UniProtKB/TrEMBL annotation:
Domain of life the protein comes from: Bacteria
Annotated source species: Microbulbifer celer
Pfam families with a match to the protein in the record: DGOK (PF05035)
Signal peptide extent: none
Gene3D superfamilies, per database record: 2-keto-3-deoxy-galactonokinase, C-terminal domain, 2-keto-3-deoxy-galactonokinase, substrate binding domain
Name of the molecule in the record: 2-dehydro-3-deoxygalactonokinase
Length: 315
């Protein structure tokens, strides 16, 4: 592994979410030199043990890397994390986020935490609050590599437990909406009559779920059960069909929003793990919407570095 002198003005970039811990050593050129990855997410460790765990992971690095500055994103900045860092209100650009980095208190680490983002959905009469933590850093990473045209106007989708649909205008996060598709899938798969027994993924069953267009998702969901009963769906493919139903419903709900003033669909930029962005890519194609896919973990590292470089903590 590289030494601190070889790294130059290096950085420790930490993406610490609910279910995972990913610490990346990067050099001054932005190259990833090593990564420590575990399933010790914020939800898997008591709050009192979060800081000791972080210090333990850094202490496992070679001594000359332990003094590198640390920048952290994700649920580490939440009320159940290392330190509660207030959300930054949209519209927001990378420079505003960089200016709002919060120093980590209570330890000698040269560390800072990225604030999440909040927005009020203008399409809702009640202007319900929308929030994100972690995804904003992936968005910063995406903006750093996007074309000028893409930065001027784009739609991003960051699928996962809580999928985020993000509108980019003039290089800023204008606003966003959240779909609980991933969490609904997990709950229905584990705690409902819709999915029973061992499951294997089926492309055909997933496609059937995408194509199902009922009057309401709450009515459509029961077809996961009844298609098995009338032998139109194999029991072991129920989860794949359910996934298609949920993703298809999410995308159809936003299809009008994704149209330009000329009535054409905009290209959607999918950011996340490939296995889930592949599914969303298929769902978008079902609606004749083009998409591009990006690795979410790589963009998070890029975004963390970009925020550090733009902050006043970097001289």
């Amino acid at each position: 592994m590289a030494t601190a002198s070889e790294l130059g003005r290096g950085l420790l970039a930490l993406d610490w979410g609910t279910s995972s811990f990913r610490l990346t050593v990067i050099n001054d050129a932005g190259e990833e030199r090593q990564q420590l990855h575990s399933d010790r997410g914020i939800a898997q460790i008591s709050q009192q043990q979060l800081l000791p765990y972080l210090l333990e992971q850094i202490a496992a690095l070679p001594e000359d890397l332990q003094a590198l500055p640390v920048i952290i994103c994700g649920m580490a900045g939440s009320t159940i994390g290392l330190q509660d860092v207030p959300y930054h209100t949209c519209p927001a650009d990378p420079q505003q986020l960089a200016n709002a980095l919060a120093p980590l208190d209570g330890c000698e680490l040269n560390a800072s935490i990225v604030p999440g983002l909040s927005a009020r959905n203008p399409d809702n009469n009640n202007r319900e609050l929308e929030v994100m933590r972690g995804e904003e850093t992936q968005i910063v990473g995406w903006l750093a590599q996007a074309s000028e045209k893409e930065r001027q106007s784009s739609w991003l989708c960051l699928p996962g437990t809580h999928a985020k649909w993000v509108e980019i205008k003039q290089g800023r996060v204008q606003g966003f909406r959240t779909a609980m598709t991933g969490e609904l899938y997990a709950l229905l798969r584990k705690h409902s009559v819709l999915v029973q027994g061992e499951q294997t993924f089926s492309d055909k069953a997933f496609a059937s779920g995408l194509a199902a267009k009922g009057e309401s998702l709450s009515f459509d969901l029961f077809s996961t059960r009844t298609r098995v009963l009338d032998q139109r769906l194999s029991p072991q493919h129920s989860a794949a069909y359910l996934s298609g139903l949920l993703i298809g419903s999410e995308i159809r709900a936003l299809s009008g929003t994704l149209k330009s003033e000329a009535g054409n669909f905009t290209t959607v930029h999918l950011i996340g793990d490939q296995h889930i962005t592949d599914l969303y890519c298929r769902g978008l194609a079902q609606q004749d919407i083009q998409s591009h896919q990006y690795d979410g973990a790589a963009l998070a590292v890029k975004g963390l570095r970009q925020l550090y470089l733009q902050s006043n903590k970097h001289d």
